[in-house]
């Protein structure tokens, strides 16, 4: 059973991602180390004791649609109420609306643990948090006053309605439409798919944020508006009124996260109300809906990254436990009686240590991204911009590296289990199935890579990423200067990977400057992976450099393993970026 | 829907794996090119038209255990009868027992196509073929006469009973026991798990091959005997007699291949018959059961490799089709109206071409392995030994590389589908789920790697693998000498990867010679991958060198893509083998 890794999380937050330093420098208000510890401990307890037992229930039962009502898995309704009552929905929200105003880093850490307990469950609250962010940033005061307090407390959950059957990654071709009404409201019509937690009775109202197009809107992405469309309309006193004209038409039959209801939602077909059309309220300005979405997109992408980290951790825990318990054969050097625990076999140990390394690397990248987001809200304008650029740069890497790692680590977890891994009761297969959506949603990892290369590298004319690589090189230098034997060849390996990163980055910037986006895009995915691997090596080294006695030997040896076994791949990735585009272009013929 | 790639298969068999040359040299009896073509065409038709439509049915319905009877998915019973009536069960079997005595290569090609149609279905016949091989090699004349004709024709299916809950990879600790009876028969007692197609009514009898231990047997793997244990005993005239004392206790709830019944079998608990004990007949000698198993293990492992190739092909076909149909966004350089087909996006094209390359590479390795097996049955003793060693060397690489590729390619297939890939109705997810068992059964890929390094590299004191690498280098030289511009940097890339392979091979042989198997085993999996990647590059080049007009441009460009994008990873893998062991040893502490 998953046990939230509170110590590893606290260490990474404090000593790799920079939380401890930020607190000491007073950049995070009156947040104290003690409060951080208390929050992590309690979030971990809830994830381990309350959520983890209900994860497999969700997978087995799934969400069901019965007579138009969505039934969530047994125990999930109470779990949600307990979770919301614990104040977990509002860690980072604006105190003006009942939130706790805590740093994003803490929420991200808690998200990791909850996703470790149950990814399908946690997806619901994750969507609510995104909707809160969008409403805080762009809603009118009246809308905020009416809706935010209950969304912040978790009394109402919320959804994001973007995708349509023909409009997934490309929202510009969306067909859902909105009509203006004389009273300033809108009527919404259309079909939305893949709506996470789109319908249920866990909360008495559900607040849908829906993208739609006005009749006179410009074509493409500049003609999309964002609307708040509640399941139940509110009376003047804020109490629940009439049912709005929207409903869940069907649930998807998915590979994983079975407990999370993935709904096809129909707006405005006349099923409810006097006349067809779901009543909606504009958020932000007309035709600026996509900009409102972008506000929350970085946070949402990082939240998906946390699903990857969580799957890594859960799969690793399960595999390590199994490998200690299961005996089979005799490993080289095994002197015990009978068969060895399989953890003694070098190949099994290689798998498990690789899983550990990818877990820690993903965690460090994601937390560093959250740290940048937090600091982007503090300091002077230059400082805020610096950290906003850092968060922007790290977000696609965090999302993609952690979610790819989730799939890879869960697959290794199955392999460690042997035949048992293929049997559903073991639970290793469930983690793998669940993991597979994370590289897809909130922008596929290929779209993250395109974003990284075409939008993030050019920030500050390329000087932001250059500065960042410079910081990473300093850490490699600190490893060299430490003269710690336990680092092995780490310093040289880091330097080599960072040189690969630097050369590839400059090559991409030059291609972009030359207007050759096709070549840059052809190498975007290998570049994104290169960046993630180099960061993994450097961040593990940063942790190992921290002079914290507890666990330092392990951090050093995991760092060395990572440097000497995993990150040499950057050379091949560099080659793929720089030399691969021409052969890819030539090979397109094989797809004819 | 899957369409058997008959042309690609024929090309690879003939021009990469060497079938055409072997026929021309008269090494394969009176087999003709026309007969090969006719067999491939008809096997392909059956796979595409008859099997492929029933694959998804098997996944959805699964096999079910109802009142002790196993119900197979709708249509599978008739599918089996039609398949067996087509003579497909007996392609390679001994003509003395009704077989067609055709080369193994043809059976392997057909297996690819049937697995492409439905892996869960094809698994049943695959086990029958293995049992036929074991019985032909080791059974008494009386047993052969009684059982082989109907097993060869497919009138009866057969199973292999090896695994027990505590005895998976390590069969030495098996507990199932056999007692001698005065009439020369044995009584079998015990529980076996993961028995593929262990019970059903598709054929009127099922022939179980069961490993068990005699009371006075030596401990470990030298004390295991193999028995033939029929579901129904035979009367003197060969007609079906009494029900034997064995039954299916339960079916596993698996991640994939749902249509294939995976049974827990109970032998000898007294459910059937006068006294407890399933009646069994010894195959081969007492305590030599594992040797009998090894006879068929190479073929069985290659058959699993074919599952990997089949999944690669099916996933690639599905993804290419989707990427042509689905439109989204505008790719760089897209001049059409509206959105581009997603196949135009460089990142999607990269995924699809990578899928093609891994499919062709896996296919070429597997067919080359089958070719070696075929030639090991011809020529003089030295020649036969040479090819037997080649088959032995290639088997672990074929099994592991193709099955890992199956998982990776199926995962890329999901990614190409975006959100649709996570919806089960699309079918991409099913292929991924099915694929995941292949790296596990018939010896996990980690065990294949250990076999490759510790048993196969030392063949002929290392001279066999050295000679093989020499042959591969000659192909790289031919690429260089061809001066074909379309090869791009292929020659240099092949040389570089082959140098990595050579250096790593010598390092491993030296470690083994020094008695340091722990270090050799620590690098076994990366070495196995290195070997597979280098072979992929070389075999694609070999195909591209063949002066067949049809499709040569495509073969050249796919080869170049593979050489310039995929095989540079060998450098990192070499590093992991040679330099990774020490850091792995140090990092074991993190698993404490």
UniProtKB/TrEMBL annotation, chains A, B:
PROSITE patterns named among the record's database cross-references: ACYL_COA_DH_2
All copies of domain Acyl-CoA dehydrogenase/oxidase N-terminal, residue ranges: 44-155
Recorded GO MF terms: acyl-CoA dehydrogenase activity; flavin adenine dinucleotide binding
Residues annotated as domain Acetyl-CoA dehydrogenase-like C-terminal: 472-585
Keyword field: FAD, Flavoprotein, Oxidoreductase
Function: Involved in the assimilation of dimethylsulphoniopropionate (DMSP), an important compound in the fixation of carbon in marine phytoplankton, by mediating the conversion of 3-(methylthio)propanoyl-CoA (MMPA-CoA) to 3-(methylthio)acryloyl-CoA (MTA-CoA).
Name by which UniProt lists this protein: 3-methylmercaptopropionyl-CoA dehydrogenase
Organism lineage: Bacteria, Pseudomonadati, Pseudomonadota, Alphaproteobacteria, Hyphomicrobiales
